[in-house]
Write a structure and sequence with these properties.
Length: 448
């Protein structure tokens, strides 16, 4: 049954009452008004999907009212009703945004089908909005979590460059989220409806990377059994993301530069020139400027790809974001594992903040996923974190030094408990101690 709302605007009581009854029987929620002024009040008060409006009303003309209504309520569909068909009025109404224009009496049988069509259009528009929102939540800037100044500045720069077609170079340590930034830039650009294609330049041999990038002709090298499109062709009119571009072989760099300069390229083994227009986003964890100065990376290519450079801060440079990220990953992985872990203990948060995070956000994400799997309580505790984090915390000011025997013993007991999935009898057997002794040590070290 429909759940859309319909507003009928007509000063003729019989027609308004008849329409209200017919439309209500189809399952629509129906409101009515006799004037444009009264209709405007209903529109302000209620969420109206479809308006059926007479052309001639005591306080105005329905055709002229369409433009005003669509300006204030752009998602509301308007169907105009008139006693006398007028082509000029019909054309004007449609141009102003009306869904359709019909003659009362002659076209009564069209009213319900038209309302149904208008409802279908509204449903489609809502679906598009919902999908765009989901896409933005998955790939847009909303997925980038953090409040530290360095990150906020990076996001603001990315938002400014996104609507342009300028090449972007993302710099920063491995695991800082360069591909997440690249996707956010793409899905906030005018190319968002076209492909986002990524290539890790360090993942292929010197011989294969050119084929991956530009494609090849069958028989051009051993194993090339059929023609293959390159990623520049796959990314046509979209975005090509070259991760770890500093790993690209020097002898391939002139071909990439030529493509970036004029949009032309050749498949491996072909003599036919091809064209493609793409937006390039590159990323590196190297200092490409220094490498260009020393001849390890072509300086002309560096200046071509570094038109707009954005540096992504390492996680240890944005300590205030660690808690936000950890709680976000906690929500993600508790949902995936159907666990009821509500929060992270303050002690565990402190440990996370003290760690240096050489693997950056990617490492934090993996550690929280592991901790969620291990945790059996409603609060993610310090004991579910890897031992190296606990040792790091201990060496940076906790009550027990990592070199104390008690500290080592606590960590070992926790490892054994993790191994036995919390089975204390089995843990006591493996530790070669009595069960009572184990319980005493669990109480002493505040382990679960």
């Amino acid at each position: 049954m429909p759940n859309n709302s319909v507003l009928i605007i007509d000063d003729e009581d019989k027609i308004r009452t008849l329409l209200k009854r017919i439309i209500s029987l189809e399952g629509y929620l129906v409101f009515d008004a006799t004037t444009l002024g009264a209709a405007s009040k209903v529109l302000e008060r209620e969420s109206i999907d479809i308006v059926l409006c007479d052309v001639k009303l005591p306080d105005g003309n329905g055709v002229a009212y369409v433009k005003e209504l669509k300006t204030k309520h752009p998602n509301t569909e308007v169907i105009l009703l008139t006693a006398y068909g007028n082509i000029a009025d019909g054309v004007k109404a449609i141009k102003s945004g009306a869904f359709d224009y019909i003659v009362k009496g002659d076209d009564n049988d069209k009213v319900i089908p038209l309302i149904s069509q208008a409802a279908d259009k509204i449903a489609l528009q809502r679906k598009v909005v919902r999908l765009e929102k989901q896409l933005n939540e998955k790939h847009g800037f909303d997925i980038i979590i953090g409040e530290s100044l360095a990150l906020v500045q990076a996001v603001n720069l990315a938002k400014k460059v996104a609507p342009t077609n300028a090449p972007v170079l993302l710099t920063g340590e491995t695991g800082t989220g360069k591909e997440v930034f690249a996707e956010a830039i793409h899905y906030s650009s005018h190319n968002k409806d076209n492909a986002f294609v990524a290539l890790n330049c360090g993942a292929f041999s010197k011989e294969l990377i050119e084929s991956e990038l530009f494609g090849h002709k069958a028989g051009s090298f051993t194993g090339a059994t059929k023609d293959k499109k390159g990623l520049v062709e796959e990314a046509k009119n979209g975005t090509l993301f070259l991760d770890e571009i500093g790993e690209m072989p020097l002898d391939l760099q002139p071909k990439l530069l030529r493509f970036l300069e004029n949009g032309t390229y050749y498949r491996v083994g072909e003599t036919t020139e091809r064209k493609a227009e793409i937006r390039l986003i590159a990323a590196t964890n190297r200092d490409l400027q220094k490498e260009a100065e020393t001849g390890k990376f072509r300086s002309d290519l560096y200046f071509r790809i570094a038109v707009f450079t954005i540096h992504l801060p390492a996680l240890h440079e944005r300590t205030k974001d660690i808690e936000l990220l950890a709680k976000h990953f906690l929500q993600v992985y508790t949902a995936k594992t159907n666990k009821q872990i509500r929060e992270i203990s303050p002690e565990a948060i402190q440990v996370l903040k003290q760690y240096n995070w050489p693997g950056n956000v990617r490492e934090l994400k993996n550690i929280i996923e592991r901790a969620v799997i291990l945790e059996d309580n409603h609060i993610l505790s310090i004991s579910s974190l890897p031992s190296e984090l606990q040792i790091t915390a201990n060496t940076q000011g906790n009550t027990m030094s990592a070199f104390h025997l008690a500290s080592v013993e606590k960590l070992h007991i926790q490892k054994v408990l993790n191994y036995t999935s919390g089975n204390k009898s089995e843990a006591a057997r493996l530790l070669n101690i009595g069960l009572a002794t184990l319980y005493r040590k669990l109480d002493e070290y505040k382990l679960k």
